[in-house]
Amino acid sequence: MKLYCLSGHPTLPCNVLKFKSTTIMLDCGLDMTSTLNFLPLPLVQNPRLSNLPGWSLKDGNAFLDKELKECSGHVFVDSVPEFCLPETELIDLSTVDVILISNYHCMMALPYITEHTGFTGTVYATEPTVQIGRLLMEELVNFIERVPKAQSASLWKNKDTQRLLPSPLKDAVEVSTWRRCYTMQEVNSALSKIQLVGYSQKIELFGAVQVTPLSSGYALGSSNWIIQSHYEKVSYVSGSSLLTTHPQPMDQASLKNSDVLILTGLTQIPTANPDGMVGEFCSNLALTVRNGGNVLVPCYPSGVIYDLLECLYQYIDSAGLSSIPFYFISPVANSSLEFSQIFAEWLCHNKQTKVYLPEPPFPHAELIQTNKLKHYPSIHGDFSNDFRQPCVVFTGHPSLRFGDVVHFMELWGKSSLNTVIFTEPDFSYLEALAPYQPLAMKCIYCPIDTRLNFIQVSKLLKEVQPLHVVCPEQYTQPPPAQSHRVDLMIDCQPPAMSYRRAEVLALPFRRRYEKIEIMPELADSLVPMEIKPGISLATVSAVLHTKDNKHVLQPPPRPAQPTGGKKRKRPSDDIPDCKVLKPLLSGSIPVEQFVQTLEKHGFSDIKVEDTAKGHIVLLQEAETLIQIEEDSTHIICDNDEVLRVRLRDLVLKFLQKF
Amino acid sequence: MDPECSRLLPALCAVLVDPRQPVADDTCLEKLLDWFKTVTEAGPSLLLLQENPCLVELLFRVLKAHDPRPRVLSFSLRLAGLFAAQEDCFQYLQGDSSLFVASAAGQLLVHILALAMRGPAEGHPSPQGCDWPACAQKIVCHVEDSLRSTATLQVTQALNVLTTTFGHCHSPWTQGLWVRLSPLVACLLEKDPIPASHSLVDLLLSVARSPVGSSDCGLWETLAQTLSHLSPTQAGPLALGILKLQDCPQALKTQAFGVLLQPLACVLKAAAQAPGPPGFPEGATGDSITVDTFLSSKSACVGLLCQALAHLELLQLLPQRPSPWPQAPLLRAAVAILRFCHGSAAPTSDVGGHLCAVLAGCVRVQRAALDFLGTLSQGTGPQELVTQVFAVLLEYLTSPDSSPMVLKKAFQATLRWLLGSPKAPSCCDLDPHTQLFLGELLPVLRKRLCSPCWEARDSGLEFLTQVTRHWGGQAAFRHALLASEVPELTGQLLRDPESYVRASAVTATGQLSSWGLYATPTGPEHPEVQQESLFTELLHILSTDSEGFPRRAVMHVFTQWLKDGHADVAEDLEQFVARVLQAASQDLDWEVRAQGLELALVFLEQLLGQPGSRCPYAVALPEAAPPATLAQVLQALCRVQLFEFALRALFDCDRPVAQKSCDLLLFLKAKATPCGGPQEAGASPDVVSVEAALQRWQAGEQGQPLGELEPEAVMAVLRSMDLEGLRGMLAKSSDHMEKSPQSLLQDMLATVGVLGENEADCY
């Protein structure tokens, strides 16, 4: 059993598991942090960005000044942003049988895999995952395609050139494999390969293994997966949460008794407690608005935003903010808000019960109804008519490199009254802000990551008791910035096996058993014999039939019945005779007693030698030796068949036959 | 015992001895015992037993029962003890598995022992006990056997009996008892683990506090030995107990203090980046046993730290605390613990790393450490350390991860440190460090007042109230506060959805306003609307808020304003009182009405003059206000409708309100009576109508207004009323009927009856 690790990002995993005869890809995450190296894509003509000076080498060589621009001491690539794909060379991706998706954040690389690698298999995911995943992809494509950029920089990627660049460009990995965003056509084609599944549904893969999604509590439709055969169980835990937010709670019990548990997608901010961060978010929002400033919240169009809107719904009245407009701007804003209300069966119990009242499960419906929350596909059109300040704007993309957020950063960045509050943990906020420096706007970092923290992981592992844990290497040591926090790592026995990008792990267990079925008529013919109390044995002669990874013992073909008087034999009827079977032997030969028996039967001059594997009984007179080992006995005598048979019979006396 | 109770008693005794009957709960039995206690104290018990043979029968049958119910058994034992303590006929019942029985039996043994020793052994008993009464001999032998036992339960019970003995009996014979038993107690220390360590500590402390302690008898050695044998967690309570003792050897005190300091010394050592300044006195240097405890498990580490912090906190407040008090290292340790809990410590040692992992985010330790740090504010420290204290407090106040309870504690500790900080010598204003800290604190407070968590808003407001109460007059504070947005936000919180927060906001705005620091909120909601005065706003809360807490808070603020002569009040005093009383009189919450009477009393006192050092409600002041003034006063009282408010309150269905009103009217009557004036108003039509109205009120028809009142009529009514009698009646608790023994007996029987009926229903 092997695990091919195609992504080094612990929360955007992409691993391939070879298990029995199947090849299963676990998640398909896309590392978008590469875009932080690029200049933002402004929605409207932006003189500041377009007038940035080109970057030149120390010696004055300016051959890169068209591709690289300098802003406040940082160098950015002036080109269409590109993404860092999962490793494609480590394993032939056309051999992947299925892809299991655990949540909508972990499928963003799907079109690259399904459309460009010869993949012919099936993708499994839950309905909300697919629907919201589609929204995320649609938003991404829209953000990038609506601001066409003529230039595509490639000179800087040259290995020799890259070495000369300043950090972080110098240290960026595998820049040659970075790719531009996919198209909507590719998205649609990729999504068409998905088969929808429900929690706890058992899906047979080629009769070899069974895969089952379990609720993971992290996002709408988010799942962990169990991959099991009759005798082995592998659990794949991706983004999971034990906090009470909107999704169905995590199913922990089904993860018990795993041989291997692959653990990814833990919180990226282990020291920040989501509750505290939500409090911080609300307080800063209120303080800014009270002073007449605007609040910008760069976010994804689904996920934490639902919880934030719910908190604000309860908070705005107490903070005296009921008259402040909240704007949600995204090409998919409307669909996202509506989708969240229709996936009732995927929601936590509280929200599910609301549906029966009937009430919308999320209170943002009421915010929309009372005009407190308004949503727009983009800043163009209706929004510009309705726009009122001070206000709160939720918009993407959290990387601050594309999407409507770029516009608001430029618009509001110059005033210290305004605040940008980062809630998505995927991007370093300082790096995200770099191309906007110098910035007068206040910046607040309130990362809200509801995924498991290390205390929860340790409880989970104690609860489900896997034999082995496999995880990204980042989880096996404290975070680099807090090397003394030994509590911020996975602590389990035996120690977790770690992986890094482009590594192949041999998973630490051997398959030992395979289930074989016996046909009823064959089973009927067995005559078990009790050899020890409680243990019976029977011999079976049969034909092993293996098809679709199922093994069946079938009765051996019978010799043709002699028909009537005609005994003409045709070659095709020539079936080998089943010989009368010799009895099977069991037991061991006690050497001393055996020697005594030999003496009783007239053999003399017997010598016993101990060997590494057993004994040799030497009949010197007869020039014969009997080699007794644990699993075999040999009588070696020189052409004396009578003697051999006599000795054999004496040996057999000590063994049981059946 | 009254005949009705005597009549009920046999039935109850029958219930108690009947194993098929359910026994009433422990509270009832306790009440029953209390009652028997008063009965036996009131008259001869023998007579009681003769008149109520059912009681003897009860004791007899319960003690003879094969399988008595523990509750009834313990009740009977204690009842028997009440009646016949001198009867030493009870078996030793300590072994009973029921805690009630074991404890009752233990106490009984102690009483029997004390009684037995009272007679002959007075004087100089021999330690060997050969001249002790047989009964006492038997008990002591039993205790000795138990102490030798290998069963922890038995040892525990023997130790408990001894603890009670040394706690209650201070006769010279106890010294003999200790001499006889101390070798056995010392033997317990040799065992590993030490059995019943809690009880052992209790016993040793009990002995040390008794006269035996002052006569040495090797007790101090035993204590020293015990301190070193017990585990750090077990030794903590003993060490604290030793340090509380009035006179014990200095060496023992030093050892005990060392035990308490050990865990903190350990923390200091673990937190140290480099050899730091001198730490704790010798004997407290973080020994390996403490380190082992820290490393053994999270709960052991947390438990030991919390215990040490709590003990040291208690100790600091005592006059006999060790001197010199290691203030600086304690401060350093508290700061280190808080940093470990916050994850902001960067230790280099292994123990430090472990502590960091164990303590990160541990709310229990955070709370204990903040409490402790707050107590340390009573002392001083080097400026560099005080700066660290404020820094760590600010860290906690700022951190989004501080739980509501931790935040509250952090605010409390901050307040204590702020108020303890020295004033700048030159200008009587805050010293520069404090001013600097305020500059950082107020933005944090501002953010906390905007928190979505109501507990955070609430503790922020409480802090603001306290700090303003003390510093409202300090120029630097006023300046910083007014420059912050805090006063406006506080005003905003008057409309908070959470009633506790509204109440705290009321108190805070009241305090701010008293110092002229209140600014009307200009929220983004209605920036254009000119806000009304705070008085109007608070009055609005008083008359409309659906919850009691904010309304009570408003009444407290108004009373304070009246006392302080607040500008808003002084503007039109009568108008203020009239409006407040009117609102309060209609309130459904009795505490609001009672506070209304408090306010009325303050008003009265201000008009009539302070009663001085006398009891405010003392009768007949010789130097009453001059008649002319009195008449004016009475007129004023009529104008603000104080009489109507007070008279209505006199018949309030809530007793405290009626009592307060009664006191107020008595005070007024006493003030007004000596002056002559129109006393002969006896049957004027006014009085008749007032009395008629009062009668209707008394009958519960409170809806009727009193109408315009003439001062003369009021005084006449007051004179005619038996206010003293009313006060006496009100002084009796309202449930004096329900508390009667008769009612108790009836209730207990009724419970049985109900159960009986249920049983019948089942068939």
Automatic annotation (TrEMBL), chain A:
Residue ranges of domain Beta-Casp in the record: 305-433
InterPro entries: Beta_Casp (IPR022712), Integrator_9su (IPR027074), IntS9-like_C (IPR048660), Metallo-B-lactamas (IPR001279), RibonucZ/Hydroxyglut_hydro (IPR036866)
Record's subcellular location: Cytoplasm; Nucleus
Keywords: Cytoplasm, Nucleus
Pfam families hit by this protein: Beta-Casp, IntS9_C, Lactamase_B_6
Stated family: Belongs to the metallo-beta-lactamase superfamily. RNA-metabolizing metallo-beta-lactamase-like family. INTS9 subfamily.
Function: Component of the integrator complex, a multiprotein complex that terminates RNA polymerase II (Pol II) transcription in the promoter-proximal region of genes.
Protein name: Integrator complex subunit 9
Species per Swiss-Prot/TrEMBL record: Camelus ferus
Automatic annotation (TrEMBL), chain B:
Repressor listed as a keyword: no
Biological process, per Gene Ontology: cell population proliferation; DNA damage response
Superkingdom of source: Eukaryota
Chief location: cytoplasm
Compartments where found: Cytoplasm
GO cellular component, one term: nucleus
Keywords for this protein: Cytoplasm
Cytoplasm keyword on record: yes
Entries under PANTHER family matching the protein: BRCA1-ASSOCIATED ATM ACTIVATOR 1
Family according to the record: Belongs to the BRAT1 family.
Protein name: BRCA1-associated ATM activator 1 isoform X8
Lineage, highest ranks first: Eukaryota, Metazoa, Chordata, Craniata, Vertebrata
